[in-house]
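Hey team,

Filing this mostly as a record. A colleague (T.K.) asked me to run one chain through the structure pipeline before their review meeting, and I want the input and output archived in the tracker in case anyone asks later how it was produced. No errors, nothing strange. Just documentation.

Input sequence:
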Amino acid sequence: MQSNVSSQSQEIIKTEYKAGLATFERGQYRQAVQHLEKASALSNRNSRQGGEVQLWLVNAYEAAGQRQEAIALCEQLKRHPHYEINKQGRRLLYILQAPQLQRPAEWMTQIPDLGAISDNESQIKLSIKSDNRKRSPQSEPTREIEDLSKINTKDNRFIVVALFAIALTLGALIWWGL
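Output structure:
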């Protein structure tokens, strides 16, 4: 009976862990935290699997804006019995405690809020209809023909100089017997 409960909890851990990773990859960090917290609570925290769940939980905490929880969990992972988990926990803690650099505003790109798209749906439909109208030939831009007298057509003897340099190089190679 005990092994049956253990195998059931292992299945739940795997399911929650996979769900946490999937939601993390989709950018749904709060849901990822919830799934990974469930998996972490059910797993043996001192096992490799438990440590991996906790490492992903640190990443989810940070992505969800819960930096203090991420740092606290990294402090625990520094003392994890598995060497790789311990090392990753120390690395993550170092990154999380690093000072934040200020970026100039011109380095940043503002992403518009697309949440209001449903409010402007009627305006979008109108703009699509106006774009689908056939354009008259008068509205097409006319191409300007450039004045050929302004274009430099003088021979700059580049080809002659390049051929002379190639012939000189080949002659030198033959002369030295290479």
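Quick notes for T.K.: Residues 2-25 form the longest helix (24 residues). Residues 55 and 88 are 8 Å apart (CA to CA).
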